[in-house]
Amino acid sequence: MMKQLLFIIFFLACINVNAQQVQHPYAARINRILKQLPAGNQQQLDSCMMQISALGTAGLAEMALMLRAPAKGDNTRLQFALSGYAAYVSAASREDMRKTAMLAWAKALKLTTQPENKIFLIDQLLLFGDKSVVPLLKPYLLQPHYCDPAVRVLKHIAGSEALIAMEAALEKAQGPCEISLIKALGDLRYLAAEGAIIKRAKSENPVLRRTALFALANITGGDTAPVLEAAAEKVGYGYDITGATAAYLLFVANLGHQWPTTPAMTAASNLLRRCQGDSLEYVRIAALKIVADILDYDATNTLMIASDSKDHEYSAAALALAVKIMNAANAESWIQKAERVDGSKKAAIIRMLADSKQRAAIFLFSKALKDKDSLVRMAAINAAGQLQSIEMFSPLLVAMKTTDTTTAKAIGEVLLTIRSSEVPGHIAVAMQHAPPFVQIILLQLLAQKQAVGQERLIRSLLNSPDPTVVQAAKSTLAAIGL
Predict the structure, then answer these.
(1) In three state form, how does the secondary structure of 231-277 look?
(2) Residue 20 has pLDDT above 50, yes or no
(3) pTM exceeding the 0.90 threshold for the entire prediction
């Protein structure tokens, strides 16, 4: 009896050992690979990746199934190996390895029960998955735990198979899955889904409605315009939780990239006309940008009119847009306009021409140095610094002699930034007949520029009747080592 009992125990033990061997035939090899990671160099990494590849479909699947539940072990090294291999096989030259990996992932996904591990495996398909994994991911598109990562993979794969799968899933999807699918189809601009998404644009759920509106704006289909326009009009073209106005602006901007551009121009012009008042300023600016983008270099007249607006932000936006389409012909039109306006408008145009580096406006800048408005004078001074033009040396130095201390210091700061070997000479000559406070500023500039070659003219100021000028000349000579 004892012998029979021992035989049964031995038999069961053999079965258990054999079952373990059948269940995890690759465990030892996998553990040896994991001990080599992370690799110290590229050669070691390539060796590890080739060892993983040698496991084949079954071994790779077993490796994926070794992932433990989050509370029951550390998956760091295993996840590192799996994600590293997913990236490794994504190379175009490793097609066979990639096919094997997809088969292994398909097997592991079906057997994995832990949600976190299943999501991890789905995420890795972003690196190497292709249209062949679409059937594998279809069931997950309707499961709240997995729809978001599955949609991300299909969105990355794109192509007709992925698009059709997501469109079909949308008919039955609810909650977060519905949101994910609509956003992906919108981002991919899938026109066939327009009708299904329009239905969601009327939902009472603000999150769903917002997602649908923006998806429609991206798709830019033929049936979308009245839906988005009505949604924006309903909220008075203002802000609301569904982003109706922003979605409509995005739609009109996208429409402007299609031919013909007339529908987009009409829509943008209507927005400019309807959206009055300070609260809708951002809408007018967005509409103006759409018009400028459509007209491109022909938008100058429109932008000039907009720059005359009493709305400071709107006027500034028009000038900023003008910089982007500036050419010689447009620059001349703006120069002529600057001659017709004064005050802050003129200063703003000068700044805009300087920002667009229009050397044709140097005459305007030079003339503006004598303007009675301090804003215009300062704009011209800064413009000289931006253009770094030697043509403005003389006008700047002449202006220094007849201006106030604040403006003179501003001119000095600009002269200091101009990188030209001619600057010290111009400064040294100009300071001979300048007022004392200007001479001091110019001497300081020569010191900072280490103008050794101007020693004679610097020493001439040692005879100045103004003691502060004499002291400044001595300090300058000391600064340049003389």
Answers:
(1) HHHHCCCCCCCCCHHHHHHHHHHHHCCCCCCHHHHHHHHHHHHHCCC
(2) no
(3) no
